């Protein structure tokens, strides 16, 4: 039952941020719709994987608004460890905030605070960024809802943009929670059925 709950919360957070960010950037929404041209019927997992721009838009929304908003504490092992010349003794509690890491300009570029899906289109940069990706936490404590959310969001987002023009009004950036679940809130959305 825990995994079901985790999957639900993870899905909600990911879906909200992806829809909000794509819909609030008209150029991105247009490219998502263009990405869908030629695909008829339901969006299968195979089709979703071919929608490179759409998947980049989702990944970028997740980078800026990761499911896990706070540092998940870990303990330094018995032998201690050294990181960048700094010795951490055994038992020290350490952690890394995904919200901070994902906005690090050295890792994600000078526009790290900006929604820019094109950063995920460069395969070399994508590999580097994925190594620093804590969208769902990391290691053995990765969010149990990760795979459910990724599979569903990769199909739901393009399906919604295939059928609707979506308009959103976002709250001020400072109003977005950055604690355990960092789900965007207070978003006003309007879904208008697209003809054809």
Report on this model:
The chain is of the alpha+beta class and about 200 residues long. It has a single domain, classed as Orthogonal Bundle (Cytochrome p450). About 45% of the residues lie in helices and about 10% in strands. It has 8 helices and 6 strands, in the order H-H-H-H-E-E-E-E-H-H-H-H-E-E. The chain has a two-stranded antiparallel sheet. The chain has a two-stranded antiparallel ribbon with strand order 2-3. The longest helix has 22 residues, at about 1-25. The model has no long low-confidence stretch (mean pLDDT about 85).
Which key terms come to mind for this protein?
196 residues; alpha+beta; two-stranded antiparallel sheet
Helix-strand layout with pairing:
Blueprint: H1 2-23, H2 26-35, H3 45-50, H4 52-64, E1 74-75, E2 81-83, E3 86-88, E4 93-94, H5 98-101, H6 105-108, H7 123-131, H8 146-163, E5 164-169, E6 188-193
Antiparallel strand pairs: 1-4, 2-3, 5-6
Helix pairs in contact: 1-4, 1-8, 2-4
């Amino acid at each position: 039952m825990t995994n079901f709950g985790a999957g639900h919360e993870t899905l909600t957070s990911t879906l909200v941020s992806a829809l909000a960010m794509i819909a609030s950037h008209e150029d991105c929404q247009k490219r998502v719709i263009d990405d869908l041209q030629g695909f008829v019927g339901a969006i299968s997992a195979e089709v979703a994987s071919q929608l490179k721009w759409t998947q980049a838009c989702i990944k970028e929304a997740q980078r800026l608004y990761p499911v896990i908003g706070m540092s998940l504490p870990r303990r330094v092992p018995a032998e201690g460890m050294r990181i960048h010349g700094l010795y951490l003794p055994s038992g020290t509690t350490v952690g890394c905030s995904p919200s901070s890491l994902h906005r690090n300009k050295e890792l994600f570029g000078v526009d790290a605070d900006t929604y820019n899906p094109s950063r995920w289109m460069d395969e070399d940069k994508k590999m580097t960024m994925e190594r620093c990706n804590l969208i769902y936490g990391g290691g053995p404590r990765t969010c149990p809802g990760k795979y459910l959310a990724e599979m569903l969001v990769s199909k739901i987002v393009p399906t919604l943009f295939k059928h609707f023009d979506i308009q959103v009004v976002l709250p001020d950036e400072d109003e977005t929670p950055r604690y355990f679940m960092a789900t965007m809130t207070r978003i006003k959305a309007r879904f208008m059925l697209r003809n054809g």
